[in-house]
Design a protein that fits this description.
The longest helix has 19 residues, at 6-24. This protein has ten helices and 15 strands. It is globular. It is 31% helix and 21% strand. The relative contact order is 0.16. The strands form four sheets. Strands 4, 8, 9, 10, 11 and 12 form a six-stranded antiparallel beta sheet that branches. It has a five-stranded antiparallel beta sheet with strand order 2-1-14-15-13, with helices on both faces. It has a two-stranded antiparallel ribbon with strand order 3-6.
């Protein structure tokens, strides 16, 4: 390994801490034998089994009380199907106000959601955007503006108020999976994109736990979007959005997610693959290193690369750590990039 500065050493120690946290800290995220993630550090071809992290670090707020709560664990999808789930947030009043412009009937909390949603739309939505652009922009906004409720990752989970709904996501800027999915769903409903929330289970720390994500319909085809799993822990100011679970098909989701396929439309297409569409697919090491150097030139501290093999790992002079997610028919690797 090459000599590194104290600053670089600190960054790499932080990267190692993230990998350790993803091993031991998160719900909905550990890798089963048939798929998942590997990770490693500079100039190594082999990774150690690691975890896909579930959310992002949340800011503390002393003014809000927390309650002890944990995600129910399930031994199978069949057991989950018999569970009584908490109802999801009803956005009807907010959507009616958005369409009519009349906010007089909104509750105080719904009014706060409405105003925060309008502010968010003004940041990422522009007239003339295609549906794919809208979905991508909404996904990127959610994954870069929400913080995962880190209290839910403690040995004795402590849930902050409203993290399961858009008030948590839009006003408090923190959430659990239902907070992420209902916030994204609200954006889709406001912008006229056909979307629904999928409720199922995801593989966490050696167990299957309750999870939710979104299913969008674009040009008559369905695609999964999991904003929670694209916002890994811990979060960092100015971090680029990640797109592992943006517009993916059933086979990619099934590596670590389960749901009742009879209850939701099939997502059979992979023609909107983010990495292929954005020049982030690599078939050889030189292409990986070119993507890394492009990220470095843009001032990014991470980059994403899609490959056909988890063995295709390479480092330019500015890349120093990675983790790889198995999506069945392909792999997505996130590399840490060291800026000078």
């Amino acid at each position: 390994m090459k000599n590194i500065s104290a600053k670089a050493a600190a960054k790499r120690a932080f990267a190692c801490a993230i990998l350790c946290l993803s091993l031991f800290g998160c719900a909905d995220n550990k890798v089963p034998e048939n798929g998942g993630a590997t990770s490693g550090t500079e100039k190594t071809e082999s990774g150690t089994t690691a975890a896909i992290t579930d959310g992002a670090q949340t800011e503390k707020s002393e003014e809000n009380e927390v309650t002890e709560q944990e995600f129910p664990a399930y031994s199978s999808l069949e057991e989950f199907s018999k569970a009584k789930l908490a109802p999801l947030y009803d956005s009807g009043a907010v959507l009616e106000a958005y369409r009519s412009g009349d906010v007089s009937e909104l509750s105080e909390k719904d009014l706060a959601i409405y105003e925060a949603a309008l502010d968010a739309l003004s940041e990422f939505y522009r007239e003339g955007m295609s549906e794919v652009e809208i979905v991508t922009a909404a996904h990127d906004w959610v994954t870069t503006h929400l913080f995962y409720d880190e209290g839910m990752m403690l040995a004795i989970p402590k849930k902050s108020p409203d993290t399961e709904n858009p008030y948590g996501g839009l006003v408090l800027r923190r959430g659990i999976c239902t907070g992420y999915s209902t916030t994204f769903q609200l954006f889709m409903d406001m912008l006229g994109i056909d979307s629904q929330i999928v409720r199922g289970i995801a593989f966490g720390t050696d167990i299957w736990e309750e999870h939710s994500w979104n299913l969008v319909c674009l040009n008559g085809k369905y695609y999964h979007v999991d904003t929670t799993w694209d916002d890994f822990v811990p979060d960092e100011e100015g971090r680029i959005p990640f797109h592992t679970y943006l517009l993916v098909d059933d086979s990619a989701m099934e590596t670590l997610h389960q749901w009742d396929h009879s209850a939701w439309p099939a997502a059979e297409y992979d023609d909107l693959n983010y990495f292929v569409k954005n020049g982030l697919y690599a078939s050889k090491k030189s292409e990986i290193e070119a993507i890394q150097e492009d990220a470095y030139s843009k001032g990014w501290t991470y980059c994403e690369v899609m490959t056909d093999s988890d063995k295709l790992i390479s480092f330019s002079k500015h890349a120093y750590a990675y983790w790889t997610t198995d999506l069945g028919e392909y792999y997505v690797t996130v590399y840490w990039i060291e800026q000078d």
